[in-house]
Design brief:
The chain starts with 7 loop residues before the first helix and ends with a helix. About 60% of the residues lie in helices and about 5% in strands. It is mostly helical. It contains six helices and two strands, in the order H-H-E-H-E-H-H-H. The chain has helices at about 10-20, 30-40, 50-55, 65-75, 85-95, 100-105; strands at about 50, 60.
Length: about 110
C-alpha cells in the first residue's frame, strides 16, 4: 500500500466503489456493509502529512503509520456522527488493518 495514481479524495471514493463491487460484499448483512463502507471511505484519512497549506500546494508525503492515525481519527470522530461504540471499534480495527485486509482480499478465492 504505497502510493496512488490520483488524489487522495478520489482514491477514497474509488476504494468504496471497488469494495461494494467485490463479490464478498454482497455476502455481508446491511449492518456489516455499513461498517465496511465507512471504514473503506476513511481508510486513508491520515495518509498525508504536512500543514493544510502544504497539502494544497502539493507538498505532502505519505505517512507510513497512517493506519494508526486513521484508527485514532475514527475513534475520535465517528461517535459524533452517531456510530455506536461497537461500530466505532470495528471500523477503527478495519482501518488499522486495512493494508493486510487489502492483501487478503486480492489473494482470496471467492
Amino acid at each position: 500500500h504505497t502510493g496512488h495514481d490520483h488524489r487522495l479524495d478520489e482514491h477514497m471514493l474509488h476504494a468504496v466503489v471497488y469494495a461494494r463491487q467485490s463479490p464478498w460484499f454482497g455476502r455481508l448483512n446491511p449492518s456489516q456493509q455499513k461498517l465496511v463502507t465507512t471504514a473503506t471511505l476513511f481508510h486513508d484519512m491520515a495518509k498525508q502529512t504536512g500543514s493544510a497549506q502544504d497539502r494544497l500546494a502539493g507538498k505532502i508525503s505519505p505517512d507510513p503509520h497512517h493506519h494508526e492515525g486513521g484508527a485514532a481519527w475514527a475513534k475520535n470522530t465517528l461517535p459524533q456522527l452517531g456510530f455506536t461504540p461497537p461500530e466505532v471499534n470495528t471500523i477503527a480495527w478495519l482501518i488499522e488493518h486495512h493494508t493486510e485486509l487489502g492483501e487478503l482480499s486480492r489473494w482470496a478465492e471467492y
